[in-house]
Amino acid sequence: MPAIGVAQNPEVGLAVQNDDAIVVPQQRGKLLLAVMILLCLSAGLVLLGLGVGSNGWESLASMWQQSLAMQIVWDIRLPRTLGAWAAGALLGLSGAVAQGLFRNPLADPYLLGSASGAALGVSTALVLFGGSPFATAWVVRMGLTGAAFAGAVLAVFLTLLLARGVQHSLRLLLAGVIVGVVLGAIGSLVTMLRPDIVQSMQAFMLGSSGYVGWSGCGLMLVVWLICLVISVALSQVLDGLSLGEATAASLGLPLAQMRLALVVMIALSAGTAVAQTGLIVFVGLAAPHLVRSVLKTTHAGLIMLSSLAGGVLLSAADILSRWMIAPQELPVGVVTAILGGAYLLRLMHKQRRYSEHV
């Protein structure tokens, strides 16, 4: 009997041996090229962001000789620009994990109720402490940031409690919707009872990277690196789930524990981003779609590329929000909603045209 060899399809660049998919050098090369392109775009956007301020675009070369201008760049623009990239990377990562975990391309980082929980935490903190969600006083700022993160974590905990664990994806999905609706209603009630916090809550709901300092930027980058490493390490369970529950269970993986760890990654990454920048929509939803439209890869590659793409998208949106109507500034959440909505509408139209021709 002849030995079973390696079957290779040169068109897709995949080799199969003992029923395990192995990415061959052609596919690794495409993945590496995509990573390098996104890193170069990220670096270019960071440099571009350093020159965009309240007066529009300013040349870094002309600012180099001015000590006050360079202090503004170092203390305000650089942490803000890096913070916007880090928040986008966290949202892109959590969006890719959520879509893989729920096997739903419409899943986003806020699906487990973290957005409504964060908003409730901020509204409660505003009632207790007063002030703006982006106040410069570090005591108030850290209190509101902590409240937003605590609210997001509480919402995910309630979702897990209502779903009775992570064994059933559909139950977890429905529990997240219920928790989000209930906590959102409570947050709206708190805001209605205290009209003085309406403007502050509106600023939080629209999102902004304008008050991200070095501490917040460093925190997001550290959390992003931790979540990226753990999510990529657990990506095999997402590959298994994409083939069905029975197939994933037959692989011998501890599905319950790995699902719980992935839910924690979604909550940690989304909660950290929301706590620092407010609610920024469409980045976590659009980034994985953008990656899939360009490159087909495993969930490990998808998570990495979606994270980098999320950073690029939010960095570009942050620069546009500062530059379009300078010296005024658009909420970055409005820009991401417009750009993300336009992209998803284009994608939907393209898929409909494709289905009509098939």
Automatic annotation (TrEMBL):
The chain crosses the membrane at residues 31-53, 82-102, 109-130, 142-163, 170-191, 211-234, 246-267, 273-291, 303-324, 330-348. CDD domains: TM_ABC_iron-siderophores_like. The keyword Metal-binding does not apply. It is a multi-pass membrane protein. It holds the Pfam family FecCD. It is found in: Cell membrane. Keywords: Cell membrane, Membrane, Transmembrane, Transmembrane helix, Transport. InterPro entries: ABC_BtuC-like, ABC_transptr_permease_BtuC. Belongs to the binding-protein-dependent transport system permease family. FecCD subfamily. This is Iron ABC transporter permease. The lineage of its organism: Bacteria, Pseudomonadati, Pseudomonadota, Betaproteobacteria, Burkholderiales.
